[in-house]
């Protein structure tokens, strides 16, 4: 795997609150190696280890992007949703930021059928065909289109399963993580002190409740993906 310098700065991570974990009563003992201290009833994450695993994750996505691989970013809680969408759009990745529909990956044929329906309805809307239908029929299809846009809008261009999935908040996206494990899809997971670090292929210990922390981690990964894509374009 390529080793590169990703400018991962401990002070920058501290300013973003990456080191703040959950309360000491709400933790997973398996996270002990990633915790450096307790402060006012809160676990403090060891940022040196965060930097190490974030760097490994950046190496992984850079190499994958340089070979034309496809990524999916998943983060559906309110504090993560906007950052996930922005990061994915910037790096031309697929994303899910509203709700992970059970079986979205393990039952790909059903998801594919929904995506075909979604694309057909978007085409009908763009061509004005929906507006030529009876009002009742048009209203029903527009509601269906709105529903599909909400839940599948971030993966509308997906034509197959992703090569790597990036997950924000292991607890919140546990179903997505389990599906990836079942299918053998490599995962990079942002994990707080209440998570299991052994589930994802690369676990990045970090605050998954602070917008600044989520954004910083995603920005580093997105930069690595964009660098990898540039390499792929230059050397097809």
TrEMBL record:
<dbReference type="GO" id="GO:0003735">
    <property type="term" value="F:structural constituent of ribosome"/>
</dbReference>
<dbReference type="InterPro" id="IPR005706">
    <property type="entry name" value="Ribosomal_uS2_bac/mit/plastid"/>
</dbReference>
<protein>
    <recommendedName>
        <fullName>Small ribosomal subunit protein uS2c</fullName>
    </recommendedName>
</protein>
<dbReference type="GO" id="GO:0005763">
    <property type="term" value="C:mitochondrial small ribosomal subunit"/>
</dbReference>
<comment type="similarity">
    <text>Belongs to the universal ribosomal protein uS2 family.</text>
</comment>
<keyword id="KW-0689">Ribosomal protein</keyword>
<keyword id="KW-0687">Ribonucleoprotein</keyword>
<dbReference type="GO" id="GO:0009507">
    <property type="term" value="C:chloroplast"/>
</dbReference>
<dbReference type="InterPro" id="IPR023591">
    <property type="entry name" value="Ribosomal_uS2_flav_dom_sf"/>
</dbReference>
<keyword id="KW-0934">Plastid</keyword>
<dbReference type="InterPro" id="IPR001865">
    <property type="entry name" value="Ribosomal_uS2"/>
</dbReference>
<keyword id="KW-0150">Chloroplast</keyword>
<dbReference type="GO" id="GO:0006412">
    <property type="term" value="P:translation"/>
</dbReference>
<dbReference type="InterPro" id="IPR018130">
    <property type="entry name" value="Ribosomal_uS2_CS"/>
</dbReference>
<dbReference type="Pfam" id="PF00318">
    <property type="entry name" value="Ribosomal_S2"/>
</dbReference>
């Amino acid at each position: 795997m390529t080793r590169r310098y990703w400018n991962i700065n401990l002070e920058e991570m501290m300013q973003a609150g990456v080191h703040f974990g959950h309360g000491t009563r709400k933790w997973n003992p398996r996270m002990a190696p990633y915790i450096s201290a307790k402060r006012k009833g809160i676990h403090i994450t060891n940022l040196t280890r965060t930097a190490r695993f974030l760097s490994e994750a950046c190496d992984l996505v850079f190499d994958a992007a340089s070979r034309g691989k496809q990524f999916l970013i998943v983060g559906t809680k309110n504090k993560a949703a906007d950052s996930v969408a922005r990061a994915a759009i910037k790096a031309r990745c697929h994303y899910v930021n509203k709700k992970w529909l059970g079986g979205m990956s393990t039952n790909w044929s059903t998801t594919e059928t929904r995506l075909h329906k979604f694309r057909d309805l978007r085409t009908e809307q763009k061509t004005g065909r929906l507006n030529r239908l009876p009002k009742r029929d048009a209203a029903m299809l527009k509601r269906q289109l709105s529903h599909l846009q909400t839940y599948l809008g971030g993966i509308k261009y997906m034509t197959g399963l992703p090569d790597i999935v990036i997950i924000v908040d292991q607890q919140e996206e546990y179903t997505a993580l389990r599906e990836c494990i079942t299918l053998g899809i490599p995962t990079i997971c942002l994990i707080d002190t209440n998570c299991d670090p052994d589930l994802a292929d690369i676990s990045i210990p970090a605050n998954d409740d602070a917008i600044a922390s989520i954004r910083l981690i995603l920005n580093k990964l997105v930069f690595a993906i964009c660098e990898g894509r540039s390499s792929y374009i230059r050397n097809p």
